[in-house]
Amino acid sequence: MKIAFLGGGNMATALIGGMVECGFAPGGICVVDLDEGARARLRAKFDVRTLAAPDAGVFASDVLLLAVKPQQMKAALAPFAGALCGALVITIAAGLRLADIARWLGGRAGPYTRLVRCMPNTPALIGAGITGMYAAPAVDAAGRELAERIVSAVGNTVWVDDEARLDAVTGISGSGPAYVFHFIEALEAAACAQGFDAESARRLALDTVLGSARLAAASADAPAVLREKVTSKGGTTAAALAHLAARGWYDALIEAVEAATARSRELGDQFGTD
Ligand SMILES: NC(=O)c1ccc[n+]([C@@H]2O[C@H](COP(=O)([O-])OP(=O)(O)OC[C@H]3O[C@@H](n4cnc5c(N)ncnc54)[C@H](OP(=O)(O)O)[C@@H]3O)[C@@H](O)[C@H]2O)c1
User: Fold this and answer.
1) Tens of pLDDT along 62-93?
2) How far is CA 18 from the centre of its chain?
3) Domain ranges of the chain
4) Strand (E) positions, 33-154?
5) Which of 46, 112, 221, 244 is placed for a possible disulfide with 105 were both Cys, Cβ 3.0 to 4.6 Å?
6) Which residue's CA is minimally distant from atom 2 of ligand 1?
7) Where does 176-264 sit in CATH, by number?
8) Which CATH superfamily is domain 3-166 in?
9) What is the pTM of this model?
10) Residue having the nearest C-alpha atom to atom 20 of ligand 1
């Protein structure tokens, strides 16, 4: 199995690390990156083949994983136009639609069809990501399974059957880590306001989020039930939740996801133009 990466930055490094741990052979992985620093880091860390520009071996790969920034994609794909020999192409670029990538890859032969679009998130950097995935109709079950095997090396996956839903995935889990980090920041600031030193405040805030997420993941109860279980009538948690409700916290988060989803759609329009 020959797998080529276009772009060898943060996400490609996370994916390659996860893949090697899952048993993909480093000898079958090749990374194309303009930056010699990035290439040297990848060679030293994983002993993969690296190149400054794609060669015939890259064009003949079984899988091509697109991991350059969305604004770099069109130029990065120029050497590939009409040159691929049937590779399954997986893109992790935020916002970029398959129709645009298909057009850029197809060259004079017309749109390229074996495409899977993914939206990972930053916890992928520690193997704890969640990735939304969409496969173009031309991708068969074996292609979907292969894409999932690669992407699940850095966490869990959720398939969507409409590419437009990946904009919502971006708003929920793609941008989601920032919402959680912001929550941790606020809880930490609240602990400092209550007189805790910075280190204790961080410990209290971080372990509360970590422990609650682990409990929610391990429990048969839904998060709403777990919340009710720690909210006794007239108690401390009830006082806090009443305050959050009065300030519209829950609706604000739903609206925030809507704003991120709309922005993802806009970025797709912006980056996908010819
Ligand atoms: N990081 C995240 O949290 C996250 C989450 C979801 C999706 N993504 C997506 O993942 C993709 C990669 O993100 P990243 O954070 O890994 O980016 P990154 O660290 O900037 O990596 C991109 C790499 O591609 C190189 N590159 C640029 N143009 C190239 C070309 N024409 N040919 C070959 N290599 C080229 C860049 O080199 P230079 O530095 O010299 O430009 C850089 O080393 C993006 O499309 C992003 O939207 C990222």
Assistant:
1) 999 999 999 999 999 999 999 999 999 999 99
2) 14
3) 3-166, 176-264
4) 49-51, 63-66, 88-91, 115-119, 129-135
5) 112
6) 122
7) 1.10.3730.10
8) NAD(P)-binding Rossmann-like Domain (3.40.50.720)
9) 0.92
10) 9
